[in-house]
Amino acid sequence: MKKLFFFLFVFVPLQLCEAQSLEKMQWFNEPEQWEIKDKTLSMFVTPQSDYWRISHYGFTVDDAPFYYATYGGEFEVKVKVSGDYKARFDQAGLMLRIDHENYIKAGIEFVDGKYNLSTVVTHKTSDWSVIALEKAVPYIWIKAVRRLDAVEIFYSFDDKEYVLMRNAWLQDNIPVQVGMMAACPDGKGFNVTFEHFKVKHLPDLRRLEWLEKNSE
């Protein structure tokens, strides 16, 4: 029994760590140039690519690079993003995606020469919210927390103090593709780097509330 217990204790954490390995994730719209090195994903973003559905512009596009893994339940995901943004609407950050009609993308976006914290929420049609930054930043941390049917999006300049930038609905009790997204709707492509990508499982909130109400 002692030998068996030791094997299980060591084996389970190793499996959990491997599940978040960048090498085991997969592409949707794989770009021509990308690399994983030292736990960092770098890519040259595909020109003329984006995610958007219908509203305001009247068109739908679903062709930008997205590197993801699938997670169920509730979780927290964060990543450090830095990019050589050049053209209008160059963008990079996190994406949580159920399908082509239901997704959230959040990160930094270059618009008319200024850096903006940007979130697009799509359910059949897309909406767009921005927070303008006073000056250019070398990098940004983006974090998303999925709890029940809500996703909270945060940003940070130091991975210590996080500020809420959006709270959005996303259907719960359904698997979600979670990962790193970049898009270049108007430009000729740009280089972007994603570091310290991490997904942390969170205990199911409904179950925790049930256990508390039904504890002896």
From TrEMBL:
GO BP annotations listed: carbohydrate metabolic process
InterPro entries given in the database record: ConA-like_dom_sf, DUF1349, UCP022704
Highest taxon in the source lineage: Bacteria
Single GO molecular function: hydrolase activity, hydrolyzing O-glycosyl compounds
PANTHER family xrefs: REGULATION OF ENOLASE PROTEIN 1
The protein, known as: DUF1349 domain-containing protein
High-level lineage: Bacteria, Pseudomonadati, Bacteroidota, Bacteroidia, Bacteroidales
